[in-house]
Amino acid sequence: MGKLTDWAKKNATFLKLSVGEEVKVKFMGFKIIPDKFKPEEECVQYRFDTEWGVKFFESKSLSVASVMDTASVGDEILISKEAYGDKGKYVVKLVEETKNAVAKK
After folding, report:
1. Which pTM value belongs to this model?
2. CB 11: neighbour CB atoms within 10 A?
């Protein structure tokens, strides 16, 4: 990564990855909040400790919620972004392989 990309990731409030990038994070908890784009709907805001500091990750994905429901505070999570059409798709996995949980957002 370039110097400016590193600076942007460090200073961002939310976790954002480029297609093909992955990061290991520590799960710090979650809360259910109003969706920013549709306030009448809810989404889950996850909180992670990352190499760039504490970051938020918001998702309405039921499969991400199912995987994260099996995680405990302090568990390591692997988040990656895969190509999906003209956009990307986030993939969330518990690092502890015994839990065998994978989700795509």
Report:
1. 0.85
2. 9
